[in-house]
Give the backbone structure.
Amino acid sequence: MIRNSSSSWSRGEDKLFERALVLFPDETPRRWEKIATQLPGKTWFDVKKHYDDLVYDVEEIDSGRVEPPSYGDDQFNSSWGSESGTSQVWFGSNKGKEKESSERKKGVPWTEEEHRLFLIGLQRYGKGDWRSISRNAVVSRTPTQVASHAQKYFLRLNSVKKDKKRPSIHDITSSAKSSMGNWTNEFMDPTATYDDPESPPSSDFHAFGFQM
DNA sequence: TATTGGGGTAGAG
DNA sequence: CTCTACCCCAATA
């Protein structure tokens, strides 16, 4: 039931979609149209559908305590930073009830699902409210986790963004080369262009006002 | 082996 | 609780 796009959304498309989502906040007038611009072969309707699906996913997880979709069936390894995927340690499948053996805290690598949820929550609640995000979007994660993840996330975004312009002593005011031209196929390319992660100035409406 | 990526934790606000 | 910085671990170059 969870995560099922109307059409086939590839990884690259998803990435572009997320990028566009963070690029065009909820306050954007023709948000879907603008987002669809970033997605070749997709219409605004498709995009909206996809977003709706994701939001539904989030709500489902929030409401029904539906644990994130089988992470174990990840045939295609997620590549959220490492090209080869294979993030960290998938020590013991902690599905169901976590087993606190004598295992150290170790790190549970965020999966795409969680990351997407995080992005959604990020847009819906804004940059700061990690508690709301962790409460509504990424239930599997505590505010601290979310904050840490967000830190790394934005850090990477900024790093990449800067890196793209780093060897540019020539691009003083930068020409059109920094727009779109370098990256042809950014699909499946983690080092591809992620720009402006800055969240909207609006602190966002807190539809729900529960504090922890 | 050195560097980066990635998550957790500690400390300060 | 949030923000920032640091530490530790694993993967990659």
About this structure: The longest helix of chain A spans residues 143-165. Residues 82-84, 86-89, 106-107, 128-131, 143-144, 147, 151, 211-212 of chain A lie near DNA strand C (CB under 10 Å from a C1'). Residues 81 and 183 of chain A are 17 Å apart (CA to CA). Confidence is low (pLDDT under 50) at residues 70-104, 172-212 of chain A.
